[in-house]
Write a structure and sequence with these properties.
about 100 residues, alpha/beta
């Protein structure tokens, strides 16, 4: 569930509802997580993972400290080597232009 947009509370409630609906049968998380505070809000829903479009060490550390899987995006090999995450995805220049 992406956290971008104006309705953060609604997105968090959707995550909470998904967690309740699937129980332990699937992993549920939130994406477009950009701030440490959002990690705590997502963790409070019972979600298991955080997806971030960037490699923010503070968000990754908060995610790991909360016991959640961290899935940040990286753009360069340097970012890939710096990240302390469970899995990374490679961002491309074309994904970021509209």
């Amino acid at each position: 569930m992406p956290l971008r947009g104006a309705d953060l509370v609604g997105a968090l409630e959707s995550v909470r509802a998904l967690v309740a609906a699937v129980g332990g049968r699937a992993m549920v998380g939130a994406g477009t997580v950009l701030r440490v505070e959002q990690v705590a809000e997502v963790a409070a829903t019972g979600a298991q993972l955080i997806v971030s479009p960037n490699m923010d060490p503070a968000v990754i550390a908060a995610t790991k400290a909360a016991g959640l899987l961290s899935l940040p995006g990286v753009f360069t090999p340097t970012e890939a080597f710096q990240v302390w995450a469970d899995l990374i995805f490679r961002a491309t220049a074309s994904c970021c232009t509209h």
